[in-house]
Amino acid sequence: MPPRDKAVKGTHFPGKAARALQRLILERRYGMPRGALRDDIDLADIGFDAPGRVREHIPSPQGVLRRILPRREVGHSDVFIDIGCGMGPVVVEAAARYDFRRVIGVDIVPQFTEVARKTIARGRRRLRCEDVAIVTADVTEYELPDDVTVVYMADPFQGPTFDAVIAKLLASVDRRPRQLRIIYHNPAEGARLERSGRAHLVRFGRHRTRPWRTTPELAMYEIDSAGSSPDGETGSDGGRLRRPASRNPVVQVNSDPSTHRSSVVSKSPAQLESARTEFEDHHCVRLPGFLDEPVLDRIRSYVDEGEFSIRRYRGMPIEPRMDAGKAAGLLLLLINDPALFDLVRAITRCRRIGRFDGAIRRMIPGREHEEPWHGEIFGHGLVGMSIDLSAGPYSGGVVQMRDRYSYEVYTEVDTEPGDAVLVRLAPFLQRRVTAVEGGDPRTSYSGRFMLRKKGAESRLARPGAGELTMDAGSSPRRPPATPRR
Q1: How far is CA 468 from CA 217, 261, 274, 386, 450, in A?
Q2: Which CATH number fits domain 251-469: 3.90.850.10, 3.30.379.10, 2.60.120.620, 3.20.20.60?
Q3: pLDDT 10s digits, 418-439
Q4: Is the pLDDT of residue 23 over 70?
């Protein structure tokens, strides 16, 4: 993390060829002054460096909005603002490609905004949006309009300056509740944004040179209104969740005794909304009775038949683990169900889910086997899930969530056999399972929902893939596929 008392060094986005093409388009098509677009300007050399401000002027690459914001998502009532617009390449793209009612660019450097104004004036006949304004101002002092619906930032500042700008955006949404999307290029402070508790990740943008892939370098967030959802229930210890009394299932994988098929069912919309609110407030939600008794008993019998292997890692406790066998295969089929994916997305509001990867783990009693704090850093996972498969009584084994930086514990969730826990995977969060006490171990199926599907696993995430046949004495299998005509 860069020091907060200094100007911050930026990150170069495109290569020389991409920059030359961008310069050519802006100069030939929109009339930008020749040679004006440069990425070798240090704000310290012109007297505009400041604590927390990225001191290197790095223009955003050509077509950055097109990679994350479809035209169909922009209406005539939307207003766009580029915070730290520089010489205006993204302002030009927003005004030329989309049907925004108004487009605004804000930057503190008058030399940059003068170039942006000339470009807009010369290329106005090529712009869809007629109301384009370039403002020379310090964004921490600039009064953000309350009709802005799309914000673009290309890592213009970090630290307290970033917090001040986000506070202005939140205050604007509170004054006038509305959908506010933030397109964040090179999201160096994405964790700080999510830690505000009011922003959630909507999606990643397409890769610049491999458009069939997504990249975490370009992200879209959405700001929630302060009163958009009811407050979650808190306990006597200041908001931690400990073994809720309710055993009413919100989402359940059950088995039909007459057909021996399993299916995913959800309860009332009110229960789903309550689970979503709990997840937003605590970054974690318990799904009681996720596996019904017949399915849980079948999985336990398969676990008893299987064998655990011991994995040893330096500095980590011993972890018996089962990656193969009938129990792991059945759980893989049950969880990789498109119907379950849709319900998980409804609760967590995560991105598209491609597959679930998991393994059966057994936690041995004793403090020496306590799981250390760990978390998601690179953003490959979406949401984590753990299902309690334990057969014998145990104490401890509580799922905890905390802030990576302040060490504040957000949530403690205790489970019973058959319960599942969904946890948010984000750079600012860490999680662990506390030590198990007693004579019996804690058995769970743990893993994460992932964006991409690969290899043979891709067959598990397709419509109709959720129905499984579980005949007595045999391994779980899927019904025969319908022949193609």
Answers
A1: 39, 5, 29, 21, 22
A2: 2.60.120.620
A3: 888 998 888 888 888 888 877 7
A4: yes
